[in-house]
Amino acid sequence: AQSVTQPDIHITVSEGASLELRCNYSYGATPYLFWYVQSPGQGLQLLLKYFSGDTLVQGIKGFEAEFKRSQSSFNLRKPSVHWSDAAEYFCAASNTGKLIFGQGTTLQVKP
Amino acid sequence: EPEVTQTPSHQVTQMGQEVILRCVPISNHLYFYWYRQILGQKVEFLVSFYNNEISEKSEIFDDQFSVERPDGSNFTLKIRSTKLEDSAMYFCASSYDRAAGDTQYFGPGTRLTVL
Which residues of chain B does A100 touch, with a Cβ-Cβ cutoff of 8 Å? Predict the structure, then answer.
């Protein structure tokens, strides 16, 4: 069955530190891959997406993600985290239109 | 920037009652979706809708659920007889295309509490 896994439920980093959020997928063929962010009281906002081609994808707010086919992974990174990045992050995949989500990772940023 | 809106933000209802959750998708979008997230669980796909028809639905979307686009702007999710397990955050989304890679834009959600 198709699935998306985010191994880390909760991550805490210090402001200014680097960040990596993990995402693994299980699909018959490589799906389209997405990262969304949800701040309290807000909808899910798209950070970036991967279709094909360059495996390093740049997104909004200074985020990037790297697709690794051999590891079935699509990890999200940011070189220097800001306090405003505290939110919940969702990895998602699709090959038919409907999105299949991971369980989300809550990011806490320490001053 | 255009956005998807949802009303109400929070709905409390008694078990067995009907509820209607409302969404206004982005105006030039053609595909509409409902997802839900039970507290502590994943965001789950419920249904997609195009050209006044359901395109795809999940196993969760049983006969108790229905969707409708009653006019040119609203997209609604109706639950006929709510159960305790329907308590969740319900997200509406819309996209211009239904291609697997097309961006879906999400609303802020409606938190449904069934007592």
Answer: 45
